[in-house]
Design goal:
Layout lengths: L3 H9 L19 H5 L19 E7 L4 H10 L4 H18 L4 E4 L4 H7 L3 H13 L7 E3 L11 H5 L6 E3 L2 H4 L3 E5 L2 E2 L3 H12 L4 E9 L3 H10 L1
Parallel strand pairs: 1-7, 2-5, 5-7, 6-7
Antiparallel strand pairs: 3-4
Bound molecules: zinc ion (ZN).
């Protein structure tokens, strides 16, 4: 039976799908048709993938329509409840893998960018994920340089992005622990790899990276075209 709270939440959610004009259903504010278009990783989410500098890497969907609209909604329209939906999907698909983590660390945003945006969208995913996994959330990383936004830039531009340097200001939290680092999207993986290496250097036993969406690997795409 639906709770009064459930109905109250419904009233607050956009009634239209984030990716098309059809009525939305509750999960991720997508309509059933758009929800069916979400593309899981080859082999399923639990199969994970490789990411340099990390011990394990998991994502839920390829970063292409309609999930891009969900991520943009979280990032730019401040639809924070989407973070809870993403966390619920992550626990459903990857509960066993993610529960290996002893603490959750959100990918930090440079303080200046956070000031402009008002909040860190990686934390909007990491906080409900920590609550649903029953693990503590620790914002132990600081970003030293601003970097440039990655979406909309070419692969060459992204790789040329000046080093984003991280600093772990509370190493005692991560020492000897399995850490789950959470971000919204992985593009080249360079930033997540650097953050993971920083956590390892601070003493983390293992770093698992989770993002809801990963941009399809351009190298894999071009080889598919050549082979196909
Ligand atoms: Zn739709």
């Amino acid at each position: 039976m639906r709770s009064v709270f459930g109905f109250a939440v419904d009233l607050l959610l956009p009634r239209v799908c984030l990716a098309c004009p059809a009525p939305a259903r509750r999960e991720l504010s997508l309509c059933p048709d758009c929800h069916r278009l979400l593309e899981p990783p080859p082999g399923g989410a639990a199969a994970g993938g490789r990411l340099e500098g990390c011990d394990a890497f998991f994502w839920l969907w390829a970063y292409r329509p309609p999930i891009d609209q969900v991520i943009l909604g979280l990032k730019h329209r401040r639809l924070d409840y989407l973070g809870r939906h993403i966390a619920a999907e992550a626990v459903a698909a990857l509960g066993m893998e993610l529960r290996r983590a002893e603490l959750i660390v959100p990918m930090p945003m440079h303080w200046r960018r956070r000031l402009v945006r008002g909040r860190n969208h990686a934390e909007s995913i990491a906080r409900p994920l920590a609550a649903q996994l029953g693990r503590p959330l620790r914002s132990v990383l600081r970003r030293r340089t601003l970097g440039h936004p990655q979406v909309g830039r070419s692969r060459r531009q992204r790789l040329a992005n000046p080093d984003v340097l991280f600093h772990c200001h509370r190493p005692e939290h991560v020492h000897d622990r399995v850490v789950l680092l959470v971000d919204d999207v992985v593009t080249t993986g360079a930033t997540a790899g650097r953050a993971a290496r920083c956590l390892r250097a601070a003493g983390a036993a293992e770093v698992i990276v989770f993002v809801p969406a990963r941009t399809p690997d351009p190298a894999a795409d071009s080889s598919a075209i050549v082979n196909g």
